[in-house]
Amino acid sequence: MAILYDATVSPSKIELLRAWVSAQCWLGGADASTLETVGAYRFDDPEGEVGIETHLLRAADGHVFQVPVTYRGAPLFGGEAALITTVQHSVLGRRWVYDACGDPVYAQALATAILTGGTQADLDLVTEKGTERRPATTRVSGSGSPGSVVPTVGSVAPDSDGKRTVVTSGNLQLIVLRVIGAFDADGMPTLVGTWPGHDAPALLAVARAT
User: Fold this and answer.
1) Which domain holds residue 14?
2) How far is CA 51 from CA 10, 38, 92, 103, 136, in A?
3) What is the pLDDT of residue 135?
4) Mean pLDDT across the stretch 171-195?
5) Domain tally for the chain?
6) pLDDT tens for residues 157-168?
7) What are the phi and psi torsion angles at 44 (to 5°)?
8) What are phi and psi of 26, to 5 degrees?
9) In 10 A of CB 29, how many CB atoms?
10) How far apart are CA 67 and CA 74, in angstroms?
11) Does residue 179 register a pLDDT over 70?
12) Could you give the percent of the chain with pLDDT greater than 90?
């Protein structure tokens, strides 16, 4: 279960995402200033410390980009290269925002979802009136089976090569599609998803042993 707050964030999520994506190699010729959110999904951090949210952004040319981020209440040790920015959250205070592909908590959550057939986290919104369940409009599912063994993710080494980012941890590789529709899973365990206006499951990520 992911906890959300009825809060303001400065700079806003779309502002910080547009700024960061504009400098990424996988943007290609798309105009980052036209990016708009078409969907988002979250995974749980079992420790309850790290927010894990993946944004699906569409550019004016129709390409949909996948941008997973993590939100932390303190800097990630050794994570300087993955830091996107810091923001001010009206409830939680200062938050450090990271490219999730450089955060082992995200890699563990993604591997778990893919290999065990997991889904997006349930969303609980905290307001002045209490807590209410928010229905998910972006849904993801892994192709694995419950009870499957998931390797423990330690340090991660992300590497972007055009339209994807490969996250390596030990003998595990997670391939995160930055541009949706740009990869053939070829029998590997997968994460697929749907979002408003896109009802056909789209490939989002795959896992493979090295």
Assistant:
1) 2-209
2) 16, 19, 12, 11, 16
3) 87
4) 93
5) 1
6) 999 988 999 999
7) -85, 140
8) -80, 0
9) 7
10) 21
11) yes
12) 80
Q: How many residues does the chain have?
A: 210
Structural Rg of the chain based on CA atoms = 16
Instruction: Give the SS3 label for residue 192.
Output: strand
Sequence-separated contacts (24+) of 199-206 with Cβ below 8 Å: 201/141, 202/64, 203/177, 204/54, 204/66, 204/140, 204/176, 204/177, 204/180, 205/110, 205/114, 205/174, 205/175, 205/176, 205/177, 206/114, 206/174, 206/175
The Cα 193–Cα 200 span in angstroms is 8
Neighbours of 134 (CB within 10 A): 12
In the chain, what are the helix, strand and coil shares in percent, each to the nearest 5?
15, 45, 40
**Does the pLDDT of residue 58 top 90, yes or no?**
yes
Pick from 141, 14, 140: nearest CA to 67: 14
Is the pLDDT at 182 greater than 70? The verdict is: no
Bond before 11 cis per omega within 30 degrees = yes
**Structural contact between residues 1 and 122, judged by C-beta atoms closer than 8 angstroms:** yes
For residue 86, give the amino acid letter. Answer: T
